[in-house]
Design goal:
251 residues; alpha/beta; TIM Barrel; eight-stranded parallel β-barrel; 8 strands; 39% helix; binds 1,3-dihydroxyacetonephosphate
Amino acid sequence: MSNRTPIIAGNWKMYKTMAEAAAYVNEFLGLVADASGVEIVLCPSYTSLAEVRRLTAGSNVKVAAQNMHFEAEGAFTGEVSPPMLKEIGIDDVILGHSERREYYNENDGDLARKVVVALESGFRPILCCGETDDEREVGNTEAKLEGQLVNGLAGIEASRLPSIVIAYEPIWAIGTGKTATPQIAQETSSFIRGTLAQKFGDAAEQVRILYGGSVKPGNVDELMAERDIDGALVGGASLAAADFARIVNFQ
Ligand code: 13P
């Protein structure tokens, strides 16, 4: 870890009804009330966003959306726009999660637009990247990540880079219980920072790089001890308030 303030974000994906989300928040706020020196972010699904935002108002917990369209409005059935999220007080947004890339065909071109619009609209984008098992096996991890970063950040100037968070989520570690070793997660995060430095210079030192992929109470401490890992994007283990609180209170 470094002097970059860590971010621990819980991505609930398509879990929790609004009633379940509210019960979780009521329990969770007490468990993390004393947490300091860490940014805590919950990422509920759209139907719970406004309620979770309302319940966390004035607390040390922020709320992020899991996706966002790049247009302010239009004929895009099923999508949600930046002004809609702003209206309910959302400041952070996950962009380019591997599940969105895989199941909804989001590509780097869409994401480049989303990142620019997110910043222009006052959001902090959490841009995800990561390689598949096959890509790692054949030695394509670096090329894949470099492509995702360079293309996804194509419209960004160096001065804006510190407002962007990168989440490194190796696809083979998501929901599989197969966490990247701290060494692999560190090496890859260091590669990501180096790639950002090549394109943007010193601003890369200020970027928070989160690790995601089977982060749990039992492995968060060793991951967070690594130099270039500035936080975690947690899926499954963020669904239980006590587990996620333990992750937030990493040592
Ligand atoms: P898991 O923590 O369930 O592996 O999910 C990681 C993830 O995709 C977070 O965005």
